[in-house]
């Protein structure tokens, strides 16, 4: 079945970058059939290999077929209104993304008003509005929009970000800037999501009440991926020191806090500790706002920890593959256009396959509080995500290794203590002061190390844009040596 899984992923990859047509899909089915029936005309010794190839091609066919019916090749009903100023109504279906100078709202439209005619519609758009007045999830709004198609974002270093694909993976076709918004009524969203966002806001307020800035902002980035609150100056220091990955809520962060929770609870009976740890991870995701990316990362990490618990690497690869398929089947665009999903997969691979290889080299590190495993997991995930981050950001930090070594070992405990701080703060502000004191010490230490590292002359080197083929080659070399070491 692994051949089908890899074929399905490969088929989605092909469909993400090569236009899929009916002829392309039919040709894939035809090739699969030829390979399968050819097994009747060859020697028995080669039949198994041919069956594996046929199953791989079948996976490719399903992957290509799923992309054919994806949003990437669908037509939007809003296309005819691009460039026009129109009045629309809709409901805010996502948490408002508050930036320094504006707010971005994801709105699912319900109606378009043209002269005296009302056109029903059900599609999402992303609108940019002023910071005030404030809006929230579930608000029904009337807007004056001018729709435009999202384009690639070009960086100063020549790198481009496929913003259109990123939004399309979230079901958004068009954007609108300088939007005039009028609130009609509130309370039209899901009760579950409304409750999650309220919990998240209460959790953030709890952290902000217990800790001063910028320490509270850093903790918000670690636990919730709220990097906008850090400010441009601090984010620049993070990039120069190669630690910006710690403030992006993805599989990397959740992997660290999850493994920390599991190891801290080792004193409990085995099954009880694992069960309580899994519940704590789910609670952490809920408190982070319960976004789709957080749930995806959480599922991947739980699969990794389950496999690690039972020491079943071969079965873990199968479970990981099935998990990826279950996530890509409803939304195949995640594979090529969602960095959070990609980081989740890479971090999970680090936990399952790389961490056990690093563990034997950490014999001098104490096993108390699961510190040895925490450090091995941190290093493993760093190995698997670093090339991807360099490829996307283009900045290779010469001080990254010492800075990461100095702070990454403290990140798991910081996240765990910060999680406890926010949790206790929901009950009582005074109750949160004890864990907040120790959390502050770790956060202050990390910010100090990052600031010193960013101050080193020529501490970071800007790398030119390189081909995805080179990135694939780098990962091939890494996994080749890891596999050789395992053997």
Describe this structure in words.
The structure is a single chain. The protein has 487 residues and is α+β, with helices and mostly antiparallel strands. It folds into three domains: 2-69; 79-189, OB fold (Dihydrolipoamide Acetyltransferase, E2P) (Beta Barrel); 197-486, no CATH class. It is built from 18 helices and twelve strands. The protein has helices at 2-17, 22-37, 47-68, 163-168, 191-210, 215-224, 232-240, 251-264, 270-287, 292-310, 313-328, 334-337, 339-358, 371-393, 400-408, 411-427, 429-455, 468-486, and strands spanning 85-92, 97-98, 103-114, 117-120, 124-129, 140-146, 153-154, 160-161, 172-176, 180-185, 395-397, 460-462. Strands 1, 2, 3, 4, 5, 6, 9 and 10 form an eight-stranded mixed β-sheet that branches. It has a two-stranded antiparallel ribbon with strand order 7-8. A two-stranded antiparallel sheet has the order 11-12. The model has no long low-confidence stretch (mean pLDDT 81).
């Amino acid at each position: 079945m692994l051949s089908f899984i890899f074929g399905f992923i490969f088929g989605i990859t092909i469909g993400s970058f090569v236009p899929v047509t009916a002829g392309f899909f039919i040709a894939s089915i035809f090739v699969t059939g030829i390979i399968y029936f050819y097994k009747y005309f060859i020697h028995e010794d080669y039949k198994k290999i041919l069956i594996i190839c046929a199953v791989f091609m079948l996976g490719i066919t399903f992957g290509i077929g799923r992309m054919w019916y994806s949003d990437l090749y669908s037509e939007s009903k809003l296309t005819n209104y691009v460039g026009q100023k129109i009045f629309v109504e809709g409901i805010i279906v996502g948490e408002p993304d508050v930036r320094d100078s504006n707010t971005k709202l994801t709105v699912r439209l319900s109606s378009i008003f043209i002269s005296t005619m009302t056109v029903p519609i059900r599609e999402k758009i992303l609108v940019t509005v002023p910071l005030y007045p404030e809006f929230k999830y579930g608000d029904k709004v009337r807007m004056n929009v001018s729709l435009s198609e999202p384009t690639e974002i070009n960086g100063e270093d020549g790198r481009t970000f496929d913003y259109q694909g990123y939004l399309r993976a979230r079901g958004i076709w068009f954007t609108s800037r300088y939007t005039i918004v009028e609130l009609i009524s509130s309370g039209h969203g899901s009760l579950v999501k409304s409750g999650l966002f309220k919990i998240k806001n209460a959790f953030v307020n709890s952290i902000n009440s217990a800790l001063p800035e910028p320490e509270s902002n850093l903790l918000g980035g670690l636990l919730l991926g709220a990097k906008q609150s850090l400010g441009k100056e601090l984010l620049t220091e993070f990039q120069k020191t190669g630690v910006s990955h710690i403030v992006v809520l993805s599989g990397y962060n959740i992997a660290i806090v999850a493994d920390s929770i599991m190891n801290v609870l080792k004193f409990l009976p085995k099954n009880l500790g694992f069960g309580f740890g899994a519940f704590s991870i789910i609670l952490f995701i809920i408190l982070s706002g319960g976004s789709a990316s957080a749930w995806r990362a959480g599922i991947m990490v739980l699969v990794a920890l389950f496999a690690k618990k039972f020491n079943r690497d071969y079965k873990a690869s199968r479970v990981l593959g099935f998990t990826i398929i279950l996530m890509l089947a409803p939304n195949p665009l995640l594979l090529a256009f969602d960095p959070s999903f990609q980081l989740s997969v890479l971090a999970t691979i680090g936990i399952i396959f790389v961490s056990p290889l690093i563990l034997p080299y950490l014999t001098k590190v104490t096993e108390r509080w699961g510190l040895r495993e925490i450090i091995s997991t941190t290093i493993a995930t760093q190995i698997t995500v670093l090339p991807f981050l360099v490829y996307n950001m283009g900045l290779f930090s010469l001080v990254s290794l010492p800075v990461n070594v100095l702070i990454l070992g403290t990140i798991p405990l910081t996240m765990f203590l910060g999680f406890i701080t926010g949790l206790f703060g929901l009950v009582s502000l005074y109750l949160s002061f004890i864990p907040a004191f120790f959390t502050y010490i770790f956060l202050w230490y990390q910010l100090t190390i990052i600031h010193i590292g960013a101050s080193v002359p020529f501490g970071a080197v800007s790398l030119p844009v390189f081909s995805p083929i080179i990135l694939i080659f780098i990962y091939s070399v890494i996994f080749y040596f890891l596999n050789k070491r395992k053997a």
